Amino acid sequence: MSDAEGFEVVQHEEAPAEKPQSPSPAAAAAAAAAPPVKKLVSANGPKPAGSATAAKKPATGTTTTAVRRPGTTSSTATKPTANSTRTSAAGGGLSKPPTLARPPSTSSAAAAESAKEIEELKTKLADSETEITTLKAQISSSEEKIAELTEKISAAPPAVEGTDDSARKELADELDSIKEKHKAEVEALEAQISEARSKLQQSEEQLEKQRAELSELTTAKEATDAEIVSLREALESAKAEHDTRLSETEANLTKATEEHASKLEALQQTLSEQHKDALTALEKKHAEELALGKAASGDNEKALADQKASHEAALGELQAKIDDLTASQAALETAHEAKVSDESAATAAQISALEADIADLKAKLETAEKSASSARDELEAKTGEFRSFEERVRNMEAQLKSAQETASKAQEAIAKLEEEMKTKDAEIEKLQSEHAAIEDKHNQHLKQITTDYENEINSLQGEAMYKRKYEELEAKHIELSETHTKAVETHIEALEEIKGQHGSTSAALETAKAEHASAVASLEAKADEHQKALDALLANHAMELEAAKSGVSAERESLLGDLEGLKSSHSQQIEILKTEAEATLAKELEGLKASHAEIMDALNEKSASEKQQLLAAHADELATAKSASQGDQAAQLAQLEQELNAKHATELQSMSKQLQDLENELNTKHATEVQNLSKQLHDLETELNSKHATELESQIEQVKKGLSAQHATELDELKKELETAQSSTEELASLRARLSEMDEHHAASLEATKRELQASHSAEIEKLVASNAETIERLKSEHAGGAEDVKYEMETLKESHEKAIWELKNQHASALESQLTQSKSELENALVAVKSQLAKAEDEINDLSGKLANEKFARIQAEADLDANRQPKTPDTAELDALREELGKYKKAYDEAMAATEAKSTKAADQLEAVKGDLEMITKELEAHKLEAAAKAKTAEADYKDMHESMTELVNEATGRAEKAESQFAELLAQLKVREAELAEAKVCRPQDAYLRLDH
């Protein structure tokens, strides 16, 4: 080795190649922190390569570059941005709490209070929005601070040369911890964003559901309003129908009174005419019988005069009785007219009272309509407020959508940052692997160089010339070691400074996080306060709703009470009118029956007495005639007897013919009346069937329209109602069958009584004919019998005949009265049953109307409660859970209430329709019963009239016979005077001439 050759210490540092982009300043500092190494290079070493390397190394120099990259701060700055985005989204969600639509209140005070509370809520909402804006400003300021700190970290001074492995490892660990923290924060942000999205989706679904429920509730409300309108129309139609029926009953009552008065007048006229005819007939018959029964003796004049006087006295008594009867009839007519006037006045007073009640009810109805109109106005005002709240909800939804868009943008930015981080991590790993390979290679090269230098030093230590150089080199080595220690110290100081700066940035980050947490806590506190205010508002609203409910229920109860009172008073007035009309009709019928019976009794008694007197006079005349002319006048007496028998036979034939004619007339009248009644009944049945069919069709159409949305579970109830309807129709059929049976029984009883009367009358006539024949034969055979015996027999015969006739009359009257009482009792029982059914139906209608009103009120309450909880709340977990619970409760209660109300309303509608049908059927049956009762009363009156006519005809026949007997008596008296004159002449003349005159 030459002296030029020496040892040279060269400081090498492997600097990494500069990249255009570095992942982070920490990575750059770690890459630049390669420690300086001492290298001994011989000037004239055995390896020229080493010298070349040593020559090249100092040329390289100690160059450490730290390049600032623009993308280094994105990882740290993105995290607060995401946090701020989430906070702003949460704040935006909390800034506008859900508003609840208040249901309509019925009072203006409640409306004012609700408006005041809404204004307070609006002010609170504005305050919370201002606080949220301030918190957003704080968050943005904290984000700016974090960005500044990250910039400071990125702008940190470059790493000092000669850092050791421990510092590099610490930096790598810190970098890994920062990456893990960043990754955890990114994952937390992603979880929060996904949770916010899920909550947003749930709230949107809930909002759609509530909108659908709102539409369903509006449709249900419209349906209930339509049902209320239909029920009101049905009530008005029922009132109108009831008024028409009342007017018809009043018209029928007046018509019946007029018909009764006309019938009474006609009956009086016919009675007076028949009485006069009977008197004239009796006088004629009596004259004829007297003329036929005159004898030739002079003693008959005195008897005839006595008989005439007695007959005139009897006629006077009969005329007096007729006058008394006419006076009593006039008194009865005046009493009846007074009674009818009193009843008409009473009915007019009752009608006026009913009209006053109706006017009061109309006034109440007008007030109720006014209150309903005011409630409608309030409802419209509340609907306007609800629409404004809906607009606010739409605005909140728009803000929510904007927040969602910002969240999606933040998520996209986070995804981009993650991709950049992945690429930077890959680059860092690649650089670290290259750096490790280079460092291993450099260490091996250094080891080789040191071994070479040590070998050379060991080989050169023995030479003295190199000792001086060694000392120089050792001094240089000491100097270099000192500089190395200084560099290490400066590097440690720089690391400490970097650590202090990182600690300050982490402390600032922690303070920013604490500020963010405090802002979130303040927002949560504001949300809690807002929730408390909402709860208080809901409680106040519930109290107002309860007060409104109580007011509406009290008003409804008062209206229902008034309606019930009106119905009860109206039904009581109708019942009173019906009972009074029935009582007056019954009393008039009884009075007519009594007067008719008295008149018939008086006429029968008079006719019987006159007949007895005529028979007695006739017997006396016959006895005197027989006793006077027993010898000479036998032929004349026989001729007179023959004439009398012939006349009696002709009279009997005429009487039988008249009876037959009367029977034929009665039969024809009865047949025509039966035909008319059957025709009327058939017409009524057809009319009722047609009306019932039309009503049934209309009711079926209404039921089909109203029950189109019912469930299958109501089929059992419909079947039960069908069974009840069938039972009611069966009861109606049974009542009709009973009525037809009663009609048949009445007709059969009438026919039987007529037959019995005809048979008894024919038997009595036959008996009379036989008895008269027997008496004539006995008179012929017993010429010597006394006049007293004949008179006694005639009187007994006449008494027996009159007794038989009287018994037959009594039997017929009792049978008719029993039948009439039976039919009347049956009709009264049927009427009582119909009235009870009608009252029961009215009670059921009232109960159903009350239940329907309660159900409608409950439905309105449920709708109001559901409207109060319709708007969605901020998608927070606690609020969302509370909203879900409340929504489930309200849905359950609403479904139950709607199902119950629908079932009850359909059932009430069905029952109301059934009750209406039953009521119409009952009213029709009542009208039919009334018509049948009127027809039966008319038939009974006609029967009484026919019987009266037949009796008057008998009286007329008796009076005709009496008049005929009187005329015969006058003729016989004239003949007797002629005979007396002839006898006087015969005493003077010859007996032969006398006999010749007698023969002539």
Automatic annotation (TrEMBL):
Transmembrane segments: none annotated. Residues 1-115, 196-218, 237-262 are annotated as: Disordered. Keywords: Coiled coil. Residues 237-248 have a biased composition (Basic and acidic residues). Residues 18-66, 97-113 have a biased composition (Low complexity). Residues 308-483, 513-540, 645-745, 813-982 form a coiled coil. It comes from the Eukaryota. Residues 71-88 have a biased composition (Polar residues). PANTHER family: PROTEIN TAG-278-RELATED. This is Putative viral a-type inclusion protein repeat domain-containing protein. It comes from Diaporthe ampelina.
